[in-house]
Amino acid sequence: MVTIIDFVVELFTSIIALIITFITDVFLGVDPLTAILFLVGSALTTVAVGYFGLLAAGSALNLLTGWGASAREEASADPDARSSDNMGKAR
Fold first, then answer.
1. Is 77 exposed, middle or buried (0-12, 13-18, 19+ CB in 10 A)?
2. What is the chain's alpha carbon radius of gyration, rounded to the nearest angstrom?
3. Which of 16, 35, 43, 50 is most buried, judging by how many CB atoms fall within 10 Å of its CB?
């Protein structure tokens, strides 16, 4: 029977072996232009995924705590200020 520790060790060992195989067999086996294009594509994808993750984390934080840019607005001191309550009402 495989334990959880054995599974995690095998998983990390496989990930390291995959990275080494990719670098030696795939990435170094192509011309420099292809390698540069691959690196640029990887960087753009990483930035996009990171930014989306940041937005998702901020949304979850706002949902759970109410803290953030879209938190409730304070009441306006101007009584004539139009709000969502009196938008459709005639004066």
1. exposed
2. 26
3. 35
Q: Say how many domains are in the chain.
A: 2
Sequential pLDDT tens for the chain (91 residues): 889 999 999 999 999 999 898 888 878 888 889 888 888 998 999 999 999 999 999 989 888 887 777 655 665 556 565 555 555 555 5
Query: Domain range for residue 41?
Result: 31-63
Structure tokens at 11: 């998983």
Domain for residue 83, yes or no? no
pTM of the model: 0.52
Q: Are 83 and 76 in contact (CB under 8 A)?
A: yes
User: Other CB atoms closer than 10 Å to residue 75's CB: what's the count?
Assistant: 8
72: Cβ contacts below 8 Å, ≥ 6 apart: 66
Using a 10 angstrom Cβ sphere, with 0-12 exposed, 13-18 middle and 19 or more buried, the burial of residue 90 is exposed
